[in-house]
Write a structure and sequence with these properties.
The protein has 431 residues and is of the alpha/beta class. It contains 16 helices and 12 strands. The strands form 3 sheets. Strands 2, 5, 6, 7, 8, 9 and 10 form a 7-stranded mixed beta sheet that branches. A 3-stranded antiparallel beta sheet has the order 1-12-11. A hairpin with a 4-residue loop joins strand 5 and strand 6. The longest helix has 18 residues. It is elongated, with a radius of gyration of 28 Å. The protein starts with a helix and ends in a 5-residue tail after the last strand. The C terminus is likely disordered.
Length: 431
């Protein structure tokens, strides 16, 4: 079978007849006025195609060529899903949309060995949905977060946040507004001051260079969802890390020790929904650019009446409530429990097995009066609750014209589409 690129070069064989002509020919044959051969010649349609429609092997009006891998109805739901995601701060990349489409295909063909849909499906999808989706370039700037903050992105976020809070009546319900964020602990060598003749001035510890992340989640009222502790490469041996850790904590692991899409799904479906208040709706604000959500999370959120709201990229240091105070306090307490005076050092002399036990004492601070106060202050400092976009001053922002084309266009509350290594934005009504 010739490849797609070869067909593009030599030109594809195009259909030279119209559906209208086929319908007229079909009417003539069924009325008995013409034979299949005569009608095909008179209306300029293929005899075999007309014969298939007369015999019922092909449904009149159906598309020619191989069957779509995803039905038209599912494709419409996929476009609707991309609209919903874009309107809530999650403009999809090409890879994400193909991954979601592949998940839909796998549900319908569970017994088929299959990895994911390919480039041909993506190109045909774009062609079919060219009126419904638009492609915008993604932000590929890798400079520090501070210089990338744009006033437009922050204004759009607060406009979207205000709309969500008003629409769901959350203005006086801080216990239903949540923020989750990830903080990391590097388990490495303890650096100490030594006389100059000494070699490197480092003492090795167990768990050398392991990374552990903690996903914390708090409401604007200071109430917590038990933490999610993620180890790098594998769990520690034994079960003591669970028995000694914070009460009701969840545990997981990844190659890097950081949250990924699958781990976020595990946390949301099996942990957040279990420990969250029963009142609805709930609002969950988080940095979805680091832990992109998948289809199962969005479906579950809509079913459970949980509104997912993504922070604009490069803005978590000014809009993430937990980053505004609690995480600094936790690191100070963690360093103090280890007997390390400097909490700014990202490396801690502790093993993977010991981490959860020490972190239990650290996390207890968040449940005390001081921790609750700091969490509430974090929401207030970021203007999330009470809602106040004026707390973000000009000192945090950078005019968009100084960024030129490097500015991040992906966060757009008014965007109409999805994103490719660029991003896609879906045209349609806000959901």
């Amino acid at each position: 079978m010739p490849s797609r690129n070869h067909l593009d070069k030599i030109g594809r064989k195009k259909k030279k007849w119209t559906e209208e002509a086929m319908e007229r020919a079909l009417i003539e044959v069924k009325s008995g006025r013409c034979t299949v051969r005569q009608a095909a010649k008179e209306f300029g349609v293929p005899k075999s195609s007309l014969g298939d429609r007369v015999s019922g092997r092909v449904t009149p009006g159906s598309r020619s060529g191989p069957a779509q891998l995803i039905t038209s109805a599912d494709e419409e739901l996929l476009v609707e899903f991309s609209v919903h995601m874009s309107k809530h701060g999650f403009p999809l990349t090409k890879q994400q949309l193909v991954s979601f489409a592949s998940s839909i295909y796998k549900r319908q063909h569970r017994r088929v060995a299959f990895s994911k849909l390919g480039q041909t499906w993506w190109l045909n999808f774009r062609k079919r949905q060219e009126k419904n989706i638009a492609i915008q370039p993604a932000d590929n700037v890798v400079r520090g977060r501070t210089v990338c903050v744009r006033k437009e992105a922050v204004d759009q976020f607060f406009h979207l946040l205000s709309t969500v809070i008003d629409a769901h009546g959350l203005g006086d319900k801080p216990h239903q507004i949540f923020n989750c964020s990830e903080t990391g602990f590097q388990l490495g060598r303890k650096r100490v001051l030594v006389p100059k003749p000494a070699s490197l001035g480092c003492r090795p510890v167990l768990g050398l260079r392991d990374h552990i992340s903690v996903l914390a989640c708090f409401s604007a009222a200071g109430e917590d969802i038990p933490p999610f502790i993620v180890y790098s490469k594998a769990y520690p041996g034994g079960v003591c890390y669970k028995t000694q850790g914070p009460p009701n904590a969840l545990y997981g692991w990844s190659g890097s020790g950081c949250i990924n899409s699958d781990l976020f799904k595990k946390w949301f479906l099996k942990h957040f929904l279990l420990h969250a208040p029963k009142q609805r709706p709930l609002l969950l604000i988080f940095d979805g650019h680091k832990s992109p959500v998948n289809l199962e999370v969005v479906e579950a959120a809509r079913k459970e009446d949980v509104v997912l709201l993504c922070l604009p990229s490069h803005c978590s240091h000014i809009l993430q409530p937990l980053n505004a105070g609690l995480f600094v306090l936790l690191r100070q307490r963690f360093a103090a429990l280890l007997g390390e005076g400097c909490a700014t050092d990202t490396h801690f002399a502790i093993s993977k097995k010991e981490f959860s036990g020490v972190f239990k004492g650290t996390y207890q601070l968040a449940k005390e009066e001081e921790g609750t106060r700091i969490v509430k202050e974090g929401f207030s400092k970021c203007g999330i609750y009470p809602l106040n976009h004026f707390v973000v001053t000009e000192g945090h922002l950078m005019p968009s014209h100084s960024m030129g084309q490097a500015a991040d266009p992906s966060f757009a509350a008014s965007a109409q589409g999805v994103h490719t290594g660029g991003e896609l934005t879906a045209a349609g009504p806000s959901l």
